[in-house]
């Protein structure tokens, strides 16, 4: 907005104000829902909570403790950057386009023709 250059692979976050959670429809939400959302939002902003916390899911029955993503986006999509560290998958931290393509145990894929 101020005319300054934005890096090609810059990714905004809740704390930068470029990602926002939608307002809650309080007429249908359970009591306490907004308080919990505010708590979670605050933790996401300060970095104490991560969406892809690897202690909260498994992949093929095991904890996900290593994953190389194709961050430099070469033509063959060759994995080149370790994106699991500090206990979470660093989605969109090393490039702006999403690269989380892990199939978490217990999630049923509705369409696998891709």
Short description:
By secondary structure, the protein is low in regular secondary structure. The chain is built from one helix and six strands; from the N terminus they run αββββββ.
Q: Report the end-to-end length measured between terminal Cα atoms.
A: 37 Å
The main pleated sheet reads as: 2 strands, antiparallel
* Sequence stretches where pLDDT stays below 50 over 5 or more residues: none
Strand order of the largest sheet: 1-2
* Helix and strand sequence: HEEEEEE
Count of beta strands: 6
Contiguous helical run count: 1
Radius of gyration: 17 Å
Oligomer: single chain
Structural class: little secondary structure
Q: Roughly how much helix do the residues carry, as a percent range? A: 10-25%
β content, as a range? 5-15%
- Overall average pLDDT: 89
Shape: globular
How are the SSEs placed, and which strands pair?
Layout lengths: L32 H14 L11 E2 L2 E2 L4 E2 L11 E2 L1 E2 L2 E2 L25
Antiparallel strand pairs: 1-2, 3-4, 5-6
What does this structure look like?
The protein has 114 residues and is low in regular secondary structure. The protein has 1 helix and 6 strands. The strands form 3 sheets. It has a two-stranded antiparallel ribbon. It has a two-stranded antiparallel ribbon with strand order 3-4. β5 and β6 form a beta hairpin. The radius of gyration is 17 Å and the shape is globular. It starts with 32 loop residues before the first helix and ends in a 25-residue tail after the last strand. The relative contact order is 0.15. The model has no long low-confidence stretch (mean pLDDT 89).
